[in-house]
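Lay summary. Proteins are chains of building blocks that fold into shapes, and those shapes determine what they do. In this project we predict the shape from the chain. Here is one chain we studied, written as its sequence of building blocks.
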Amino acid sequence: MGKKMIITIVGLLLLASFALADVIVEDNMVSFYYDNSSAKSVYLAGTFNDWDPKAIPMKNENGEWFVQLKLKPGVYEYRFVVDGTKWVEDPDAWGRIESGLGGYNSVFVLKSRDGKLFVDIEASKNYGISKAKKANTQVVKPKEITLPKGYESNVVKDEKLAPHIVNGKVIFSFRAPDAQKVNLAGSFNNWGPEALGMEKKDGIWQAAVALEDG
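And here is the predicted shape, written in a compact code that computers can read:
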């Protein structure tokens, strides 16, 4: 009787853990959930769509926003874009990692076994920590760089806001305290005017971009 009770309790705890998670695998599709009854629109943006804030709309079902994606095994960072301007971290994400802009992105590690996808929970929880240790980001100092030939940007040049590297990503900055919205466009995103939204902090807009040599 005691063993049955323990097994039942453990099973309930596991179910509760999965119920709190906002990213789960269902029928080999990755499902994203986000609870926000006051939001008028919610989009999903992440490394799987080059952080495009308008590419993946989520469906609203009584205040719970939902979308399914077909993804390959890998590591994915993401955020929810609420009402077109607010970039929100998933409060129930499996893991989190520094965004390079003073905040965090949600992250999960997707793996496959015998043709079935699953979220590696431990790897997801530890991913941001292990990456920070490898990059030694606990004592990171911004480094000014000259972008590789072929990369151009429409961000106004300013020595104090020069592009620099943090956590392996290039940080672009643009001072526009009165602007309501700023997007970053360049040859790295085919000059898409709406593809990469920047975040505002103290009048300065910033975006972190992972760039390959080119």
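What the prediction tells us: The chain is about 15% helix and 35% strand.
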